[in-house]
């Protein structure tokens, strides 16, 4: 998996610094109350698709049933251009990111270590006017767009130095993870915006196959819980390998430390949670020691020992919850949690503990 930000050659960095210095000089000469986007290499970049940021169910139906030309004609109608799209599942998260940025700018007026939100969509540029008008209607700080005209935007994620990509398209999310970029598929869970904190960004993570690799989960699936418990106790002092979302937790921690440096740990507007099906006594120590070996903190660690995650998440009310297994996602959704599926690891072959796919060899063995 990629680090917080990719490292370029010295020559490339020197050229970029020169370009940014010239851009900043020009920008500073203009009078505006709108904050300037940070340098991508300094920012924590969150790329969201248009269908996660806005509720585009009606538009998507037109696209799927009537084709791209009808969809573009619908979006391009001048009478609709000033009709704002309704908020989507990622909308509360984006608002929370903006709240954190506001606090950071108060403490560090000249710092560029901020969240940078990018609209990453395969929409055609011709429909961009309504997207822009909708963003301005809600006063969202989204200045960088990538509209790829029907092509996959995944190839642009690294160029935008993306730390996290959120979409409703599972295939694109899988493609992004294969490219080493933290990514997840977001699911609608009803109108929960009014129930979420407007002063603190809350992010909840599953452990195995999300923050950590699926190495231990493979043992659970293939050898059972008893072997898993023995394995975790034997290797308690050996850190787990990193999973697809480790880099995003690392990026959040970088911003959290800026608040800690100003003695604002207890009022930090970012709070992180580990919500894992692991048992604390039997397999929890390795998880906590792994985080410690990485130099990362988690604010709250909830070990559920196989109990449902939904009720705990209902209490936390995170702006987003990441999990690799769909039955946990479904349970969270049913109780109103905004959930995001991370399609990674051996868990993709199972549902509620049952193997979904049989290999050709398994089929032959049964015959």
Automatic annotation (TrEMBL):
Give the originating organism.
Hucho hucho
What GO biological process, any one, is recorded here? adenosine metabolic process
Molecular-function GO terms, alphabetical: 5'-nucleotidase activity; magnesium ion binding; nucleotide binding
Cite the Pfam families for this sequence: 5-nucleotidase
Superkingdom of source: Eukaryota
GO CC term (a single one): cytosol
State what protein this is by name: 5'-nucleotidase, cytosolic IB b
């Amino acid at each position: 998996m990629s680090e917080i930000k990719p490292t370029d050659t010295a020559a490339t960095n020197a050229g970029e610094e020169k370009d940014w210095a010239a851009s900043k000089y020009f920008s500073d000469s203009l009078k505006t109350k709108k904050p300037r986007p940070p340098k991508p290499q300094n920012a924590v970049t969150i790329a969201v698709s248009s269908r996660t940021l806005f509720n585009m169910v009606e538009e998507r139906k037109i696209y799927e049933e009537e084709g791209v030309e009808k969809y573009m004609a619908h979006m391009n109608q001048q009478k609709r251009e000033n009709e704002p799209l309704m908020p989507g599942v990622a909308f509360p998260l984006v608002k929370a990111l903006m709240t954190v940025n506001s606090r950071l700018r108060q403490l560090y007026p000249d710092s560029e270590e901020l969240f940078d939100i990018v609209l990453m969509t395969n929409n055609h540029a011709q429909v961009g006017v309504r997207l822009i008008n909708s963003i301005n209607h809600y006063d969202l700080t989204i200045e960088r767009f990538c509209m790829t005209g029907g092509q996959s935007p995944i190839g642009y994620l690294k160029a935008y130095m993306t730390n996290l990509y959120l979409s409703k398209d599972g295939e694109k999310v899988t493609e992004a993870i294969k490219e080493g970029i933290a990514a997840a598929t977001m699911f609608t869970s009803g109108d929960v915006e009014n129930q979420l904190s407007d002063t603190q960004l809350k992010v909840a993570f599953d452990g195995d196959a999300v923050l950590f690799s699926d190495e231990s989960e493979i043992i659970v699936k293939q050898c059972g819980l008893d072997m898993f418990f023995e394995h975790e106790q034997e290797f308690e002092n050996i850190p787990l390998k990193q999973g697809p979302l480790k880099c995003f937790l690392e990026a959040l921690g970088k911003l959290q430390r800026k608040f800690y440096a100003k003695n604002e740990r207890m009022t930090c507007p970012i709070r992180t949670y580990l919500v894992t099906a692991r048992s604390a006594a039997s397999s929890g120590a390795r998880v906590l020691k792994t985080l410690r070996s990485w130099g990362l903190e988690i604010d709250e660690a909830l070990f559920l020992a196989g109990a449902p995650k939904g009720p705990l998440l209902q209490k936390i009310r995170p702006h987003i919850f990441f999990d690799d297994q769909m039955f946990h996602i479904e349970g969270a959704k049913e109780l109103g949690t905004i959930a995001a599926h991370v399609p990674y690891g051996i868990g993709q072959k199972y549902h509620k503990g049952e193997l979904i796919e049989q290999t050709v060899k398994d089929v032959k063995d049964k015959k």
